[in-house]
Amino acid sequence: MASSKPSVWKDTISGGFGGMCLVAAGHPLDTIKVRLQTMKVIPGQKPPFSGAMDCAMQSVRKEGALALYRGMAAPLMGVTPMYMVCFAGYSLGKKLQMSSPDEQLSLFKIWNAGCLSGVFTTAIMVPGERIKCTLQVQGTPDYKGTKYNGPIECIKGVVKTEGVRGLYRGTAATLLRDIPGSGAYFVGYELFKRILTPEGSSGPGPMGTLFAGGMAGVCNWSVSIPADVLKSRLQTSPPGTYTGLLHCYQDLVKTEGYRALYKGVGPVMLRAFPANAACFFGV
Questions:
Q1: Residue 282: its pLDDT value, please?
Q2: Dihedral pair phi/psi, residue 169, rounded to 5°
Q3: 187-212: per-residue pLDDT in tens?
Q4: Which residues of 63-80 are buried (b: 16+ CB within 10 A; e: fewer)?
Q5: What is the pLDDT of residue 77?
Q6: Is 187 within 8 Å of 107 (Cβ atoms)?
Q7: Residues 6 or more apart in contact with residue 274 via CB below 8 angstroms
Q8: Whole-angstrom distance, CA of residue 124 vs CA of residue 239
């Protein structure tokens, strides 16, 4: 199979467009995921939601269908620069490891490049995720914080009460999620792309690209879901609830068990394939 030369500029632009496709395709399931991850389960009491379908039905019944799109403006504003940086970091990571322009990198080197891209996106990712998650959990039984009408009002409220630092709450959990997750993401895409590329061709056809992109998302979330649960908890809890990532992990496991680290896995996987297929197809 012929190897395509990485272009940081081309990957930057196409990554931004691909990220917009991902958000548009997957936000309702992302809202359900965040609501499941942040619900508090008290032993002996019925949980607020029994599962993904119950969460979706309650949200729509109590708040209307638009509740599933709550917080979408924040990732839409941030997704283009974030995915531009992500794909640029990935392209740079590949170039740094190449001994010649036409070298086909091993999957281990693809992993390294993907992990590097996860580091690059964190500075952009964390504030957007903080705002998105805060808006998504409004209206749930466990949410006790201020109600915001949109991302701008939410940003102002967080900065007023917690300072600019409050926008970066959950940074460690985001790094823990995105470094290995991004490595798995690009390895998954490259692996399936190579499998589906006909001999002598430079790449798979449109259906092959969709499938490889979808599997990239599945690989990503197979690695990332526990850290994502901790990130959601840290970012939506009242100030002072947790002293840090380790405290959040210990409290969650102590009160709800290790299974709680996989809350929201259903909607995550339902979202992972179509949303990331749309992302790579957009790329």
A1: 58
A2: -65, 130
A3: 999 999 999 998 878 778 888 988 99
A4: eeeebbebbbbbbbbbbb
A5: 72
A6: yes
A7: 25, 26, 214
A8: 22
Model confidence, pTM? 0.81
Residue in 128, 155, 133 with CA at minimum distance from that of residue 37: 133
Q: How many helices (H) and strands (E) does the chain have?
A: 9, 0
Tokens representing 256? 């709800």
C-alpha distance from residue 91 to each of 12, 98, 149, 199 (Å): 9, 11, 38, 24
Residue 67 in tokens? 């509740």
Q: Supply φ then ψ for residue 148, to 5 degrees.
A: -115, 145
Detail the DSSP E strand segments found in the chain: none
> How far apart, in Å, do the first and last CA atoms of the chain sit?
20
Which parts of the chain sit beneath pLDDT 50?
Answer: 1-2
8 Å CB contact between 135 and 148: yes
Instruction: For residue 220, give the nearest of 79, 86, 50, 85 by alpha carbon.
Output: 86
Give the pLDDT of residue 169. Answer: 95
Measured over the CA atoms of residue 218, residue 224, residue 230 and residue 233, the dihedral's sign is negative
Q: What is the Cα–Cα distance from 138 to 155, expressed in whole angstroms?
A: 15
> Which residues touch 51 (CB under 8 Å, ≥6 apart)?
36, 266
Q: Is 198 exposed, middle or buried (0-12, 13-18, 19+ CB in 10 A)?
A: exposed
